[in-house]
Specification:
13 strands; disordered N terminus; 3 domains; three-stranded mixed beta sheet; alpha/beta; five-stranded parallel beta sheet; 23 helices
Length: 548
Amino acid sequence: MSRELAARGLDWVADRPLGATLAAFVTPGSDYARRFTHRYDDRATWPTLAADRRTRSFDPALGEALASFHRRLGAGGRALANVTALAEGRAFAVVCGQQPGPLGGPLYTWHKTWTAVALARRLTALTGETVVPVFWNATEDADFDEIAGATWSLDDLALAHGSLPREARVEGRLVGNLPAGLAAGVWHAARGAWHAQPGSARAYALLDAAARAAEHGGDLGDVVSRLMLEAFADDGLVVLDPRLPEFRRAALPLYERYALTHGDVRHAIDDAGDAIDALGLARGFTPAQTEFALFEAQGDTRRHLAPGEGAAAIARALAGGAGLIPGAALRPIAQDFVLPTLALVAGPGELAYLAQLEPAARLLGVLPAAIVPRWSATWLPPSALELCAAARIEPRDLVRAPEAALAAYFGAGVPAALARPLAELRAHTEAAFARMAAESPALDRSLPELVRATARRVDWRLGRLAEGFARKARRAWKRAHAEGPHLAEYVRPRGALQERTLAWLDVVARGGRAVEHTARAAAEAHVEAALAGAALAHDALAIGSGHD
């Protein structure tokens, strides 16, 4: 059922559910697509990147630190084996990432990670090399407002919202360093909302595993790292927290190059942005954001460095200081510098800034990883599928515009004793006005326009009456269905795609292991289509009702 629904998704190019930038990126031969040298749909990309990565060795100290980090968080055997393979230079990486949020982040975080898992498996088969999925836990971000909130659903699909306490917001504070206990209120509320859901046992198990990181003195970054390790234990997901001192030290040679050439790097990024502007698409970085892309760690906070401060800050880091933190314009380049990355899985927001970075990376001596668009989907509960069947609505139409898709269905729910006379009245008045318009010139040549204008006003009033009947029918249907009043908002929260708002753990709570199996299959199908250069779509998938 779920895969059948996925086949009727929203086409990324024709329907543009993820916007114009992503549509341009996946259009072969487009001016925007040509900005990326190593295309995900070109088979030659993977051996080229693999050959470049083989010339570099994995930093030994980082390998040891990464293994220690995973053991401390209780990672499973597959993740530990993948860490060892990376550290020994026997594996390449597919990277995805997101900032840590109180419930692990919105659905697109989950979709990105499933894409990385599927892509790593597929590239292993294509190249004959070991390729492992890596989740970059963006703990060094300092945008509290972006990560503080979480949204989940109640039994009737009504959405509930929670947030970390506002008083925890400190300018420049690393979000990963937030105390884990700040998320307790959100966790408690979400667990209470999910207690009757079929997959609640799986969601609770994941949260319980994450909580163990907090019990051992972990912060929000550790909690989310543990959550992702547990959720993707079967797939050997490796989690990288860039706060590791060994990662910061491994990236220092890149930062030294950057400090010496930052002016040229800035011009390269800005010139790429101008070219993207000329295509009529959004640039990721404005000139004001590219001046200097380094911060210095200072305890729980970070301080943005001015260009003239770079050399001294690097000297402090080399002498054993807290270290440097790359800004958004330098972070993907640092990933490719330190890690043997073949591919970076990205969504439309990330793509906008990655499109400006390839010339800058090359100036710094780094060959960028191939950018692979993440899988995207909307999850439909059983009540939505039942409604689609009853209303003869395509699930993709429900995802695109729930209220519009349901309008005809609710109109059909108007009792025949009202709908038939109204339809007959509209037909009769239309015919009568047409006759009057045809005969009126005999009295005065100006009358036909007056008749037609009157006809339009009358038809508009009768149309309003029809809409009123449909609204009442909709209210009656919603009163008869507990989930009815909230279905449209669940499918498209605040008028945007569900994956941008709803916590991914909410879907797990509703579907358990079954929904994870569906996600795996959908991500694998997406990766197969992407690598083949086939059309890509935003899936509409069923949340099963089976228990764990």
